[in-house]
Amino acid sequence: MTDIAPGTERDERTTSGDPPRPSPLHRYGPLLLGLSAIVPPLMMLREVLRYPQMHFYDYWWVLLDITNDDGTLRPEALLGFRNEHPFVLPSLLFWLSARYGNGLNQPLGLLIIAFGVVSVLLVWAMLPRSLNRWQRAGLVAASSTLVFNPHGIHNYVRSMSGASWLLALALVLAALLAVQRGHRLWAVAFGLLASISYGTSFAVWPALALVAWLRGDRRRWVATPLVVGAVVVLTWLVLRGPQGGGGSSPTDDPAQALLAGLSMLGMVWTGTEPAIALIAGVAGLAALVAHAQQTPEQRRSAAPWWGLALYAVGCAVMISGSRAAFGESAGLQSRYNSMTAALWIALLVIVVAWPKLPKLRTVIVGGTVLATVALGAPMAQSVRADAPNQELLAIAARIEHPDAFADRFPEPERLLPRLKALGHYPFSPEFSLGCPDGLEIGDRVSTATWRTPSDGVFREPRPDGRDVILNVETDQVHGGARMLEGWAISGIERARCVAVLDQSGTVVGGGVVDIPRSDAEAQTPGIEIGLGFEAVAPAQPGPLRVAFHFPDGWWIRPLTESPQVVS
After folding, report:
1. Mean pLDDT of the chain
2. Could you tell me the domains of the chain?
3. Which of 250, 311, 402, 487 keeps 20 to 30 A from 426, CA to CA?
4. Which among 137, 208, 143, 213 has a CA at the least distance from the CA of 171?
């Protein structure tokens, strides 16, 4: 019997002509890269679930328009306009949220995340078949990152915004996919739905025509979107009548309009600098022009992406014409991220699919992902920092004194009765002051065991030399609301919640804690950030007290009976 030397079998397999086994990286790498597209929506989900349940400004105007005094729907009002935009589908979503979802912001935000996920899946479905597995996976991951970029956090955490912008993006992508697959009537149907979601979606019609032309479709299919689009725009011009407004008049300065439009297209490449965004927008358009020379087969394969790029540019033109007068940062608004994402998704696909230097071009995708996410941090932080104002608005509305929030809560004398009739947040069971012991507005409690700082500055020395400080720096009356602001600490602990009580011990107001106060934290070294608070209560006669819950229990102090009156 002849022994077989170690490794002989392996050598025979290698030399027998069989292909080598793919490495684990080659086999599973594209799958793992593609699955990384799940991370951006999960991160945005966390943001939505952390944000307050109170809806944002435009939502209230729409709710006033589409409801009667008793909260019932006015169906004909769904066909109205918001700042000149056709707003049928978002208005319907707002009504469904108000009627069946207790008017909560977060559930509608979850739906907006679903629209974003659908948009990414539609991008995946449109990718050219000529791309390899690594390229497809990388583009899906990059598309997810752009759609759920921190620059666009406004669209998700303030769900009323995404109900128009993200819905429109998903419908536009559906229309482009339909025309790519030759389903022209479906493309027109999705285009019509996009057009009644927001006015910028009118740009879908020339985009569909461009795709049909690049695909080599018959002339009538190239002309059809243009004709339908012209009818849509003319109908809009007739029906909107004298409505509209919503801010300054469009600027007559072409340079200012150009700044707004180009910076919108490049906003993902900067935190807050319009000049950098403008340069990035110009660079993106230049890259598209550099890749415009294609063979007929390349044009046919890339047709939907040129259509998506044209849609983004069309949106920028419309936005620059109507919003440039709002200043040099007009194009950097967080809600415009979906149009910026459309441009850069289209550009990345066109660049990666280009036959020259494929590896270098694929690396560009990774660079885009990392750069745009990091640069979105300042925008995201600015939106997060506004969350306490929304929480305080919810409390002010619950006590029916939102007088200090006219810039967020319009016509309360008309709006509050509608909210109560609908059981709409903050008049729904989900409303809470967030106190660990369940204390809520309207509760009557005994404060006999609650501790009160003893001296004039409301400072109570502790055995270990640390203090309890309940500091009310601002105490002002705005109409029927009494607004409080300050900071509080017990030992080394910040407050868990704040409540305002009348003389009988009834909770008549409350507020928000855990607000960063660098000046207070500088006086208390070693303390975590978040010592600040803001609270609101009715400006009623009689003494009021403000109370704070700490890990060691409740502390309470009286308020002055002569607050400052602000006209």
Report:
1. 87
2. 39-241+250-388 (no CATH), 432-558 (2.60.40.10)
3. 487
4. 208
Q: Is 423 buried (19+), middle (13-18) or exposed (0-12) by CB count in 10 A?
A: middle
CA-based Rg of the chain, rounded to a whole angstrom? Answer: 29
Q: What pLDDT does 540 receive?
A: 85
Q: Could you give the CA distance from residue 417 to residue 405 in angstroms, rounded to a whole number?
A: 17
Single-letter amino acid code for the residue at 316: A
- Span 308-331, pLDDT tens digits: 999 999 999 988 877 766 777 777
Residue 184 Cα distances to 100, 177, 203, angstroms:
35, 10, 17
Whole-number Cα distances in Å, 293 to 290, 329, 408, 532, 553: 7, 34, 50, 59, 72
* Cα 556 versus chain centre, distance: 38
Output the six-digit token pair for 93.
Answer: 């979503």
327: left (phi over 0), alpha (psi -120 to 50) or beta: left
What is the per-residue pLDDT across 473-526, written as a single tens digit (0 to 9) for each? 999 999 999 999 999 988 788 899 999 999 999 999 999 999 998 888 777 766
* Residues 167 and 115 sit within 8 Å (Cβ to Cβ): yes
**Cis peptide, bond prior to residue 225, ω within 30 of zero:** no
Output the pLDDT for position 361.
66
Three-class DSSP category at 354: coil
Nearest-CA neighbor of 261 among 307, 326, 205, 208? Answer: 326
Integer Cα distance of 344 and 318 in angstroms: 18
Of the pLDDT bands very low, low, confident and very high (cuts 50, 70, 90), residue 144 is very high
% of the chain residues with pLDDT over 90: 58
505 dihedral zone (left: phi>0; alpha: psi -120 to 50; beta)? left
Mean per-residue pLDDT, 246-250: 49
- CA torsion, ordered 60, 65, 70, 72, to nearest 10 deg: -110
Q: How confident is the model at residue 565 (pLDDT cuts 50, 70, 90)?
A: confident
Q: Write phi, then psi, for 547 (nearest 5 degrees).
A: -125, 145
Residues 6+ apart with CB under 8 A from 85: 164, 198, 199, 200
Q: Mean of the pLDDT values across residues 217-246?
A: 83
C-alpha 286/C-alpha 288 separation (Å) is: 5
Determine the Cα–Cα distance for residues 120 and 133; give it in Å rounded to an integer. Answer: 17
> Which of the four pLDDT bands, split at 50, 70 and 90, describes residue 357?
low
| pLDDT above 70 for 461 | no
| Number of DSSP helices (H) and strands (E) in the chain, helices first | 21, 12
Residue 33 neighbours by CB under 8 Å, 6+ apart = 134, 137, 138, 141
Please report where in the chains the tokens 């409540």 appear, as a residue: 499
Backbone angles phi, psi at 396, to 5 degrees: -60, -40
Q: Are 557 and 470 in contact (CB under 8 A)?
A: yes
Q: pTM of the full predicted structure?
A: 0.89
Pairwise CA distance, residues 330 & 27, whole Å: 46
Residues in the chain: 567
- What pairs with residue 541 in β-bridges? none
